[in-house]
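Onboarding guide, step 5: your first structure request.
Type a short instruction followed by the sequence, for example:

Predict the 3D structure of this protein.
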Amino acid sequence: MRRDERKSTTREPIIQESDAFEPEATRRDADVTESSRANRGWWDRNADEYQVEHGTFLGDDRFVWCPEGLDEVEAELLGPSEELKGKDVLEIGSGAAQCSRWLAAQGARPVALDLSHRQLQHALRIGGSFPLVCADAGALPFADASFDLACSAYGALPFVADPRLVLRELRRVLRPGGRFVFSVTHPVRWAFPDEPGPEGLSVSASYFDRTPYVEQGDDGRAVYVEHHRTLGDRVRDIVASGFRLVDLVEPEWPAWNTSEWGGWSPLRGNLIPGTAVFVCERD
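The system replies with structure tokens like these:
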């Protein structure tokens, strides 16, 4: 998933800003430090627009895994909702903490973590009694075995240069038997243009090209980075980091969902997968 630039008027913006420049899109290497710096800045600058555009779809206290609209209420990928009560749960890449807010309503004790300070300001705006933490997912500021569960709905993993660093940190802070569930763009989508219409249905790049997608300024400094891993890469990352992969969910596009989200659309969603959800457990 590359960032989308489509505008929406579903909510009034908190701050109205205009881009100072149009970045150049390219494919090139970007290491851990450059990726983290670029994405922290991008999400701080674009959090307002993101919440305006997608806030209605996400809701204030829903747990939606993906643009297809897979809801944790039905999916129960973290377990039955009645069993979440009293569980310590870490949400990685929480944005405005919609998922954490839903978890708190089930009686869980969530902690919402995001790289972007501005995204967490939106979490404060909406409200909630759980902790908000601004930190890098590759260096979690928690003691070993602090959480029963962890989750990430399109947070952190698509944007980091070394996913194993994040996965190992998550394994460290999970208790034995703990579960981590995360959703990312389905790897096959990287072979297709990021377009919702017919032009997004023809292969335009190699699925096996792991070169990161980078948007950069005139000075060559990255302002946005997204990393591609094949399906096999994701599985190997999970296993090498000390997890067991217990399920891989590829949500189908539901008939009720008529919305577009960047390159996600009913047209494409009925033909090719858009999201992969990995359900992992720590022994």
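Each response can be followed by summary notes, for example: DSSP finds seven helices and ten strands in the chain.
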